[in-house]
Amino acid sequence: MQLKTLSGACLAALFFPLAPAALAATQSNISDCQYGASGVNSFTDIFTCGTVSGSLRTLYYSTHNAYFSKGFNQDTVSYGGSLKYETAPFYGFRAGVSGIFLRGIDHPDEAHTISDIGDNQTNFGEAYLSWQQDNFKITAGDQRINIPFVGDYDWRITPILFRGIDTNYGDSTNFLHATKIWRYKPWGDDQFLNTTAYTDVEERTNGMWALGGGRGTQWDNKKLTGQLWYQEYADYTRLVYGEGHLQWQDALFQPDVGLQFIRGTSAGKALAGEVNSTSYGAQLALTFTPALSWKLGYDHIAASGNSWNNGSLVTPYAHNTSSGPYFAQPFFTSTQDLGSGNAYMTNLNYVMNESLSLGTQYSFMDLKPSPASASINQSEYLVYFTWSFSGVLKGLSLTDFAGVQTSPLYDSHFWQNRLSLEYDF
Fold it and tell me: Torsion over CA of 285, 290, 292 and 296, rounded to 10 degrees?
């Protein structure tokens, strides 16, 4: 597969240089713009003072004994990304639109091509109108959204997007948030769908809505933060999520202790199956130096034999996509898809310098997908790094995630590697 990787990098190099030129032109225009308290001063400046941004990337995605299917290997190389234009603010209003595209490089047959980056894509991505006044912002249309279990999880080529209305008052710590979603665009498609990540469910859904709030306060030399969310996914599940952290800012290693609670119950037709899920989690994070940090996470998922996956949490937009905010999670699979029981994770990250960040992670999933099954006892061993270029190549980065999962239930080891060359601007 070395030839495929080289081809992807070469093709990426052909279109990456286009971005700095566009960005430089945009920055030149912006420098001539005059802004008042409510934004630009003329209707023409709305467009001439707008900004261009994007992400262009090549991804080599390889699996061997994919998800413990012995002898089933997949190797896929694709390139693409997104290019976005956003107007300058005018009385608090902005409009944004992006184009997305994806192309494959010498793909194998469909069975051995990874679907997330397998099909060609050419379409509009984001298309929204937003209004912001001080700390209040509302965005309507096709957009990126980032709330618990509903997010971009952006490491593939084209982003996960959502069609809806998203509102926020406050900042990342002290906030009130409300979201309503009708459609979503997964990684492997360029269309907005009225389905979910549960691809085995053929019925359509009216999406989801969510309300959440967060609060932070200083307590002597300690910082206390918390957030609480209620989410309702039409005909799937109702979900309550709470998380709190206490950090000793002046103590040795600045210990941060976190607790979380997740509760899911059935809603409407319960299209994925009956839901009766309860999870508790704890996390300890230490900062040894500004460059070296460590986390230890634990989650207990209570067993419920009559509910989906023995008590697992139903997550319509994160199924087989991400473990979301679970403290204990593997990288290649999702905690909420594996069953009930105990989950553990430890992660060590080191920022060597401005260019190189590297780390390692181990997770152990003592989880049972059904009352009659044995625990999967899944171990995942992961190493990763990111090299960020500087100078004229600033914005260009090379990232690799490589690892293996083992489980005594399967007569094979599951290997996976994700190598990406990315230019963000």
Answer: 0
Q: What is the 3-state secondary structure (H, E, C) of the chain?
A: CHHHHHHHHHHHHHHCCHHHHHHHHHHHHHHCCCEECCEECCHHHHHHCCEEEEEEEEEEEEEECHHHCCCCCEEEEEEEEEEEEECCCECCEEEEEEEEEEEECCCCCHHHCCHHHCCCEEEEEEEEEEEEECCEEEEEEEECCCECCECCCCCCCCCCEEEEEEEEEECCCCEEEEEEEEEEECCCCCCCECCCCCCCCCCCCCCEEEEEEEEEEEECCEEEEEEEEEEEECCCEEEEEEEEEEEECCCCCCCEEEEEEEEEEECCCCCCCCCEEEEEEEEEEEECCCCEEEEEEEEEECCCCCCHHHCCCCCCCCCCCCCCCCCCCCCCCCHHHCCEEEEEEEEEEEECCCCEEEEEEEEEEEEECCCCCCCCCEEEEEEEEEEECCHHHCCEEEEEEEEEEECCCCCCCEEEEEEEEEEEC
Three-state DSSP at 11 gives helix
d(CA 19, CA 80) in angstroms, rounded, equals 13
Q: From CA 316, how far away is CA 235, in angstroms rounded?
A: 10
Q: Name the CA dihedral angle for 187, 190, 192, 195, rounded to a multiple of 10 degrees.
A: -50
Residue closest to 412 by CA, chosen among 6, 67, 49, 155: 67
Q: Which residues pair with 285 in a beta bridge?
A: 256, 295
**Three-state SS at 46:** helix
pLDDT in tens, the chain (425 residues): 333 333 333 333 333 444 444 444 444 455 578 787 778 888 889 999 999 999 999 999 999 999 999 999 999 999 999 999 999 999 999 999 999 999 999 999 999 999 999 999 999 999 999 999 999 999 999 999 999 999 998 889 999 999 999 999 999 999 999 999 999 999 999 999 999 999 999 899 999 999 999 999 998 899 999 999 999 999 999 999 999 999 999 999 999 999 999 999 999 999 999 999 999 999 999 999 999 999 999 999 999 999 999 999 999 999 999 999 999 999 999 999 999 999 999 999 999 999 999 999 999 999 999 999 999 999 999 999 999 999 999 999 999 999 999 999 988 899 999 999 999 99
Residues pairing with 341 in the sheet: 301, 367
Q: Quick check: 101 and 57 in contact, CB under 8 A? A: no
